[in-house]
Design a protein that fits this description.
Distance between the termini of chain B: 54 Å
CATH superfamily of the largest domain in chain A: Type I PLP-dependent aspartate aminotransferase-like (Major domain)
Largest interface: A-B, 196 and 204 residues
CATH architecture of the largest domain in chain B: 3-Layer(aba) Sandwich
CATH topology of the largest domain in chain A: Aspartate Aminotransferase, domain 2
Order of helices and strands of chain A: HHHHHEHEHEHEHEHEEEEHEEHHEEHHH
Strand order of the largest sheet of chain A: 1-7-6-5-4-2-3
CATH class of the largest domain in chain B: Alpha Beta
Oligomer: heterodimer
Number of helices of chain B: 13
Number of strands of chain B: 16
Radius of gyration of chain A: 25 Å
Number of strands of chain A: 13
Structural class of chain A: alpha/beta
CATH superfamily of the largest domain in chain B: Type I PLP-dependent aspartate aminotransferase-like (Major domain)
Distance between the termini of chain A: 22 Å
Number of domains of chain A: 2
Helix content of chain A: 25-40%
CATH architecture of the largest domain in chain A: 3-Layer(aba) Sandwich
CATH class of the largest domain in chain A: Alpha Beta
Strand order of the largest sheet of chain B: 2-10-9-8-7-3-4
Radius of gyration of chain B: 25 Å
Low-confidence stretches of chain A: none
Mean pLDDT of chain B: 96
Largest sheet of chain A: 7 strands, mixed
Shape of chain A: globular
Structural class of chain B: alpha/beta
Largest sheet of chain B: 7 strands, mixed
Shape of chain B: globular
Low-confidence stretches of chain B: none
CATH topology of the largest domain in chain B: Aspartate Aminotransferase, domain 2
Strand content of chain B: 5-15%
């Protein structure tokens, strides 16, 4: 398909802006840009058709089943979009006087109250723009806490080997040293290894529970106690909260701070890679260090204030506000019964699908799973030469988005499936049939899977060449 | 109550039975009994109509200003209809990061087009797929330049204060020293810059147009900085790049920008867009997603996420940044915006904004007590004295549906864009006369 630059035709344009009715200002010539600006020159119909064509080569939740593990690809309710499109939200300048932004402040305040109750935290900031950004802010909370107590020897963050890649990367960004600990044979935290790893240099532990294997760690209370006893704090990676929301709270499990992914658990759309929202929540012991600015309320209304020992800002203004609007809309829709109903059904759907597949595929941990489960194609690869990648690419020919591939890293040839609660039994049955069909194909016609997909707009791309010889922008003809 | 759960109660019961379980609670046996929640202490769920009413009730407590003369990091530009139409397409809206290129060419190609457009604007070689916002882009750029024994960052005091705050947070957490360069006449003080430049300086961050709207002498800053072996991060307004000298012409090494003016609504501060472009030599240090061109097995052109060896999911604690989700849909907004305007349209937006701002400045100066605080060239924002308590002026104008410039100390930072017509500016000036 052609690029915008290839459908461009000199002189074509949209009539968007009226001529200037004030006197034209002329800048000193030496300030002016001399370099040619090669933006596309197109008509509105060109543009409209271009993106409609591109949309046909994209796949969203609304295009079909999207069991991308760890990403909670649930349905994004239309009401969320309607509310976030309200002019009374979209046309508000972030630096308006406090009395003119009471509605926006109320959104942040209500969302904070509700999400603190759901997570068992005492306070929350919406400034982080995505999950990894929330991790970053949460780890600074931990760093500031120890510094504030003049406890400068706590430089280590313990991370299980099943953790999301963002966990160790965030710890490094905050200047911590990462201590990786292996999982036990049940996929949980190895208690003995944890005991051996904690000490006077432990700043904290980062954990997601249920973990990336889709397992709820039954030792969670002991785990957080061990870290606390050593003087460390416990950080909860909220990426997997969809499994347990309304049923158990990170705060009650012993976690001191958390981040949430509103674009996963709270149904805001992911937009092909953002904008998300990664609020950071914490217990009272950490709230003085939260990012500036926090929302509070008194008799005069809502207002911003700087937490006493704030870490400062991690982003301009107050975060991805419209995403918070969508999440608040969702929480108000579900309410106290809807939230555990959603998590219960997310877990039910995952177990149902796993149960249908486990006579064919090797399940990494054959026990009741939470919202997701992991298949291992290790044996399949050895015996039939079919990899996780081959099965994933095979899914594409059946119109379903493949599971997460090769993650978690501790499972060979991993495929991680998370169906979410917004899929029906019929969809799960169809998907199970497709996976079983793929399994059978792997045994009798492996070549077909090596060549998959065959029905998409492209076949498998040469990723090695893309990295070896990077072409990262359109090469205009007269550049060459 | 809406839960968007699809399975009926009956189906749920059947599915549980097939799993040899009785209730949903049986799925949570691993959760210690002592921490199982009885029920959440939040309100009952509601129907769509009730939630819609409740949220409309909340939003109506905001004041939407009909006339906006405030910038300070967020700008009120016109958003062409086609921008909203494109980003509302559910194939884009409801997709995850394009991990599967065979069914994500639409998103990957649009990011590739975005990267190309951002490089066209800045004049530099490489762009990533976006970061969270402009301030984070500048902070991440500072972290790109870290070398052993060459790690300190100089930052002009004239950058947006929010940028400075974010930069300090990012650098402090990595033990990177941030040193501010003083301002003279609201622009970089070259004497102070010369004094502070030495071979431990990894980079200098300068914003142009700066927080006060003034055009900084980035070229001279680049020359000085390069002579000490440091790199230059130019932070800018992307609209200005269509009219004023770009990063390449000013010899900057990295160009970062707040992309909000390119088709994003004000939206109380977000979602916005962090634009990052750099020279080719820094390509492998650039954080975030990057899309590259390649071919498929049929030798057909296609696009993939590339240079992933920099990223957290591969490198974990050794990654160039922790960023995973970025602002993809905002990048698409920027791309559609730039394509809709085209080179002439974007230049026109820049020109009209600057012309309207200069007209506003001239008209305000006709009133005694409004004086420009600097004689330097400005783009579409300018700092002026105020003959009365500036908060009083802001409150007086607010009553008339006008959002005045941003009060800074005793002064006001005014802003105009292409949406502020001559009539609107004349009206503002008349109302100010009444308020005084």
């Amino acid at each position: 398909m052609k690029l915008l630059f290839e459908i461009s035709s000199k002189g074509r344009k949209l009539d968007l802006i009226p001529p200037c009715d004030t006197e034209e200002y002329s800048f000193n010539d030496e300030l002016l840009r001399k370099e040619k600006l090669r933006l596309p020159e197109v008509s509105e119909v060109d543009l409209s058709r271009h993106y409609t064509a591109l949309a046909k080569q994209a796949h969203g939740v609304n295009d079909g089943f999207y069991p991308l593990g760890s990403c909670t690809m649930k349905y994004n309710p239309s009401l969320n979009e309607t509310v976030a499109g309200d002019k009374n939200f979209t046309n508000i300048h972030p630096l308006q006087p406090a009395e003119t932004i009471q509605g926006c402040l109320e959104v942040l305040y209500q969302a904070k109250e509700l999400l603190c109750e759901i997570t068992g935290m005492d306070d929350m900031s919406f400034q982080p723009a995505a999950g990894a950004h929330g991790e970053y802010a949460g780890l600074i909370l931990i760093k500031k806490y120890h510094q504030d107590r003049n406890d400068h020897k706590r430089v280590n963050i313990i991370v299980p080997d099943s953790a999301h890649g963002t966990n160790p990367a965030s710890a490094t960004m905050v200047g911590f040293k990462v201590i990786n600990i292996p999982s036990n044979e049940n996929g949980g935290v190895d208690i003995e290894k944890l005991k051996a790893a904690v000490g006077e240099d432990t700043a904290g532990l980062m954990l997601t529970n249920p973990n990336t294997l889709g397992l709820f760690d039954p030792n969670i209370l002991e785990i957080t106690r061990i870290v606390h006893d050593a003087g460390g704090l416990c950080y909860y990676d909220g990426a997997n909260l969809n499994a347990v929301m309304g049923r158990v709270r990170p705060g009650d499990m012993g976690f001191d701070c958390i981040h949430l992914n509103l674009h996963k658990t709270f149904s805001t759309p992911h937009g092909g890679g953002g904008p998300g929202s990664g609020p950071v929540g914490c217990k009272n012991i950490l709230k003085d260090f939260l990012p500036a600015l926090e929302v509070a309320k008194n008799s005069g209304g809502y207002y911003f204030y700087q937490p006493e020992k704030t870490m400062g800002q991690v982003r301009s203004f107050y975060g991805n506000f419209l995403v918070v609007v969508k999440a608040l809309t969702y929480i108000k829709s579900l309410g106290k019964e809807g939230i555990p109903e959603a998590s219960g059904n997310a877990v039910l759907n995952a177990n149902y699908l796993m149960n249908r597949l486990k006579d064919y595929y090797d399940v990494a941990y054959d026990t009741i799973c939470m919202h997701e489960f992991v298949l291992s194609l290790g044996r399949m690869k050895r015996e039939h030469g079919i990899s996780a990648m081959d099965i994933a690419k095979g899914c594409l020919d059946y119109g379903i988005h493949p599971p997460t591939m090769y993650f978690p890293l501790i499972v060979p040839e991993a495929l991680m499936l998370e169906p979410t609660e917004t899929e029906s039994r019929e969809t799960l049955d169809q998907a199970a049939d497709i996976f079983i069909e793929l399994f059978k194909t792997a045994l009798k016609d492996p070549e077909k899977l090596h060549n998959a997909p065959l029905s998409c707009y492209i076949t498998r791309p040469n990723e090695t060449e893309a990295a070896r010889n990077p072409i990262l922008t359109y090469q205009f003809e007269n550049d060459q | 109550m809406a839960s968007y759960v699809v399975n009926t109660r009956k189906q749920q019961q059947q599915m549980l039975r097939e799993l040899k379980l009785e209730t949903l609670d049986d799925l949570f046996v691993d959760v210690p009994a002592s921490v199982r929640l009885e029920s959440l202490n939040i309100p009952q769920g509601q129907s769509e109509l009730e939630v819609y009413h409740e949220m409309s009730e909340i939003s109506s407590k905001n004041t939407v200003f009909k006339h906006i003369f405030r910038g300070g990091g967020a700008y009120n530009h016109y958003i062409p209809s086609i921008v909203n139409a494109v980003v509302s397409k559910e194939e884009f809206l409801t997709a995850y990061t394009p991990y599967q290129p065979e069914i994500s060419q639409g998103i990957l190609q649009s990011i590739f087009e975005y990267q190309t457009q951002m490089c066209q604007l800045s004049g530099l070689d490489v762009s990533n797929a976006s970061v969270y916002d402009g301030a984070v882009a500048a902070a991440e750029a500072a972290l790109m330049l870290q070398e052993r024994r060459k790690s300190d960052i100089l930052v002009a005091e004239t950058v947006n204060p929010q940028l400075l705050q974010v930069l300090k947070t990012y650098c402090e957490s990595r033990d990177v020293k941030v040193i501010t360069v003083k301002a003279i006449d609201y622009a970089v003080d070259f004497n102070d810059l010369k004094e502070k430049l030495n071979d431990t300086i990894a980079g200098v961050i300068v914003q142009s147009p700066n927080f006060y709207g003034l055009i900084e002498d980035v070229k001279a800053i680049s020359e000085l900085t390069h002579s000490h072996g440091g790199k230059v991060i130019m932070h800018t307004n992307p609209i200005a790049l269509a009219l004023l000298k770009n990063a390449k012409e000013l010899d900057a090494d990295i160009c970062t920008a707040e992309g909000q003016p390119l088709g994003m609504p004000l939206a109380f501060g977000g979602p916005y867009l962090g634009i990052m472009t750099c020279k080719k030599e820094l390509m492998r240090k650039l954080p975030g997603r990057i899309v590259g061109q390649t071919v498929d097995t049929n030798n057909q052109r296609c696009f993939v996420l590339t240079l992933q060896a920099r990223e957290q999911h591969i490198r974990r604690e050794k990654a160039s940044s922790n960023i995973c989700s970025n602002q993809a849909l905002c990048a698409m907004r920027a791309s559609v915006y730039c394509a809709a305007l085209g080179p002439d349209g974007l230049r026109q937006v820049a020109k009209n904004s600057a012309s309207n701002a200069h007209y506003l400045a001239r008209k305000l100066m006709e009133i005694t007590g409004f004086e420009l605080k600097s004689t330097k060239e400005f783009f579409n924002e300018f700092l002026m004295s105020c003959p009365i308590d500036n908060e009083k002026l802001v409150a007086g104008l607010a009553e008339k549906g006008i959002l005045a410039g941003l009060p800074l100390g005793k002064d006001i930072l005014w802003c105009a864009t292409e949406v502020n017509t001559k009539k609107e500016i004349d009206n503002l000036v008349e109302i100010i006369k009444e308020v005084l």
